[in-house]
Amino acid sequence: MSEVLDSAAAMVGGGAGSASSREWAGAGDGAAWPPLAETERGALRELLIHGPLPRAEIARRLGMSRASLTRVTRALMEHGLIAEGEVELRGATGRPSELLVVRRDARHFFGVKLTGDTAFAVVTDLGARIVARHEEPIVSTEVDAVIDQIVAAHARFAADYPAITAGGVTLAGDLTEVGGRQIVKDSPFLGWHDVFLADLVTERLGIPMSAENDVRALTATEHWFGAGVGCRSLALITIGAGIGFGFVIDDRLVTGHHGRAGSLDHLPIDPAGPICGRGHRGCASAVLPSPAIVDALRMPGLDYPGVVALARDGHAPALRAFADAGHALGVLIGTVANALDPQKIVLTGDGLPLMELAGDVVHSVIDQVRAPGVPPIELDVQPFEFDEWARAGAVLGIRTALQF
């Protein structure tokens, strides 16, 4: 299924890993990212994340003089990345102040999300707004075959969006860096091991491409362009076919020393519980993911939507399976809150029916696990679409451009 959306408006009001060091000259005419100084990248980032701002506010946020900021914004305007927008009255003095805005349509970025059987692809503008989307089954999980599909998706988009500057691919699994190069160490749904995916796709497309664990990429996207805007610390938890965790601390995405931060899916929950696929008894992965909920009912031919339907009809074993999963989720959320004390925890994924069917269990267990005397957790449950994971790949490209 493919759908192309209307073009974005011209102006708005509203760690990419080793790819950040790649040359930008491979991008087509009008797409190449200009060389920007650190201060210029910082000013553009503030406008991208926080929307239109007056010069004085940008200067305050970056700790710059007005004269220095004038030089910075002049350079960004010359590159066509920002423009002067509407005028607002400053509250303290009543004097008019001209706002600077990002020219969202100045560049476009390509994002891909790979599951075990489907490739989701999008194009976004510079403000991370999706302007085109496409999805198709993965015909073969062989690396070369998947890359061929990514290249074909890019070609489909390039006909309407020739100025695609950079992008990224997100997928579940263990992704890290080796010798300054991004590598897919292990991706269980695709059966990949030790694949230099970012390098391979960059070579084929001729534009800088990154590859990242899908949950980390989604966390970075929520931090800049979603529920986490304005949060210096953020935790993201995804539930569905698996369990994923992403963290932002002091405005920085946490990857860990070996690129494996957030491995909490095998946290012990119930010493008398079922055994997970790796032999752990009663860990979160044994009861919380959608397949574990299905397995708990031991009914041949049943899938996750079927279990959800049974629970909604009051089927006792189905409700019990969701209650057990809710207990595990409550322990995980409370543990994350105790360990990191984030401003907000975002919960998403295609397993969100759990909150409908056992949300009371989740919140009750969170209250039991939380350290005493601390403020309540701000838990933000976000609707889930696979397009959002592909958008996170495009945001990898934006972050690459800003060397963030």
From TrEMBL:
The keyword Kinase applies. Transmembrane segments: none annotated. This is Putative NBD/HSP70 family sugar kinase. Belongs to the ROK (NagC/XylR) family. Residues 43-82 form the HTH marR-type domain. InterPro entries: ATPase_NBD, HTH_MarR-typ, ROK, WH-like_DNA-bd_sf, WH_DNA-bd_sf. GO terms for molecular function: DNA-binding transcription factor activity; kinase activity. Keywords: Kinase, Transferase. Pfam families: MarR, ROK. Gene3D superfamilies: 3.30.420.40, Winged helix-like DNA-binding domain superfamily/Winged helix DNA-binding domain (1.10.10.10). PANTHER family: BIFUNCTIONAL UDP-N-ACETYLGLUCOSAMINE 2-EPIMERASE_N-ACETYLMANNOSAMINE KINASE, ROK (REPRESSOR, ORF, KINASE) FAMILY. It comes from the Bacteria.
